[in-house]
Amino acid sequence: ELHYPNQINVVDELVDRHVREGRGDNVAIYFEDREITYEELQETVNRMGNALRGLGVEAGDRVVVRFPNRPEAIISCLAVQKIGGVALPSMKLLRAKELEHIVNDAEASAIVVYDDLLREVENALPELETVDDVIVAERNGIDHSYHSYDGLLEDASDELEAYNTERDDLALMLYTSGTTGQPKGAIHTHRNMLATADSYARYCLEPTENDVFGGNPPLPFAYGYGDLVTFPLRFGASTSLVEDADPGDLLEAIEAHGVSILCSIPTGFNQILSQYPDGPDDYDVSSLRLGLSAGEPLTPTTFEEFKSEYGIDLLDGIGTTEMLHIFISHRHDEEIDPSATGYPVPGYECKIIDPDTGEDLERGEAGLLAVRGPTGIEYWDRPEKQLEVNQDGWSIPGDIFVQREDGRLEYKSRDDDLIISSGYNIPGPEVEAVIEEHESVSEVAVVGSPDEQRGEVVKAFVVLNDGASEGDELVTEIQNHVKNNLAPYKYPREVEFKNALPRTDTGKIRRTELRQLERR
Ligand code: 3SK
């Protein structure tokens, strides 16, 4: 069990402690050709914290932070938390209507925004009920009449004591991008944030202050916030930011900043492999020791290809925005079985229950995952949803897993990705992993399509590799490939070729959208 003092501020732990303990000259953030040390980070966070306070932001206030992956995003979130506020990082692709829902739902009092992303804030502004201040980081010379980020920094003092927050005070709020319904705010305390670092990161990654975490998950995605903010700063290590998710920028950053732990999602790793087949020859990637993958299941094919090209293991993990980070994973120092997600992260317990009765299932049986540990699902102002996803102290993230005899947990599908056809239960992702092995296939999503006779049939939406040509012959080849590798009833009776798959801001395939198209 993890114990924290009653009075604790996450920023004191992530930044000030390192300066106090003599690590002030360590690089905290690498960005392009800039290096920001812990001491510099502390000073800038202090200035922004004082500036926000000067504008009237108080402990407990929610402040929206809207940036690409740049240092200002980290500085702003830390400044808000240091004065006792709640940082609410927002996905940069959000449109005015979506922002309006989030800002009003959270009753945010201020917005700190990169000037490139100001337009949607301005479009939403007339409808924002609680925002008193907008602070703009001017990087592109866009005209505006709001507070200037740099101007505020310049005028503020660089001395600031961390606010005396309690461990269960809120520090971070992240809206779940969700595939259906209005986004909900998942809320996290100072203790939750430290607990993800002191469980998953400490035991599965064993970081040291020499590590450099790098990668392209967006910071407003809980996975990105943990990998690129909380974990590196918890261990006095460094984070390497890239503003765009481009795989070439990532390879350049690995070489320039000496990234040792590379974080991405399966699509990101596949893009590196397909767009930069000579990556390890063209770039110095010798600093890499480990890759982290989440967001959607990593297939054994991607695991093997990356290992063979880059010589590192990709640690797949499953987490949720609500749980804040990963709760099932392998550890960096164990033999990885890429067909399983791994074991419960130390500190977390997992069990598999019957989705209908809630009763515990035996090992080997597929059912709903229930998890409990140092973080749990808590929503801002959604009491009914809260009850639905918490049962007897266990959180129910909504995934179907099997726990094998050896204790490893094997992902099957989302609760709603299970295709039921002629009485057979068919997990869509299992079929996807096999179709993805076909040499002509670049990406695939499998959903259930309504069928008079069978209830549902398996349908595959397939994006082809350059040079491959669609047609009946290829459909039959893909179907036979599945029949040869899985129980034949799992083969896709329908295959549709597409130019691209619909994805959420965090890169997850929108299977719900595909499913809905089938139901029209
Ligand atoms: O998608 C995941 O597996 C994940 C991992 C860590 C944090 C958040 C999420 C959604």
Low-confidence sequence ranges: none
Distance between the termini: 49 Å
Order of the strands making up the biggest sheet: 2-1-11-10-12-13-14-15-16
Share of residues in helices: 25-40%
Radius of gyration: 23 Å
Count the strands? 27
- Bulk shape: globular
For the largest beta-sheet, the strand count, sense and barrel status come to: 9 strands, mixed
Mean pLDDT: 93
Category by helix and strand content: alpha/beta
Description:
- By secondary structure, the protein is an alpha/beta fold.
- 33% of the residues lie in helices and 25% in strands.
- It contains 16 helices and 27 strands.
- Helix 5 (118-124) links the parallel strand 5 and strand 6 (133-137).
- The longest helix is centred in the first third of the chain and has 18 residues, at 38-55.
- The N and C termini lie far apart (49 Å).
- The model has no long low-confidence stretch (mean pLDDT 93).
- 2-methylbenzoic acid is lined by residues 222-223, 294-295, 318-321, 325-326.
Brief digest:
This protein is of the alpha/beta class and 520 residues long. The protein is built from 16 helices and 27 strands. It has a nine-stranded mixed β-sheet, sandwiched between helices. Strands 4-3-5-6-7 form a five-stranded parallel β-sheet.
What is the secondary structure topology, with strand pairs?
Layout: H1 10-20, E1 27-31, E2 34-37, H2 38-55, E3 62-66, H3 71-82, E4 86-89, H4 96-106, E5 110-114, H5 118-124, E6 133-137, E7 147-148, H6 149-155, E8 170-175, E9 185-189, H7 190-205, E10 212-215, H8 222-234, E11 238-241, H9 247-257, E12 261-264, H10 266-275, H11 279-282, E13 290-293, H12 300-310, E14 314-319, E15 326-329, E16 343-344, E17 349-353, E18 366-372, H13 383-389, E19 390-391, E20 394-395, E21 399-403, E22 409-414, E23 418-421, E24 424-427, H14 428-436, E25 441-451, E26 455-464, H15 472-485, E27 494-497, H16 511-519
Helix pairs in contact: 1-2, 2-3, 2-6, 4-5, 7-8, 10-12
Bound molecules: 2-methylbenzoic acid.
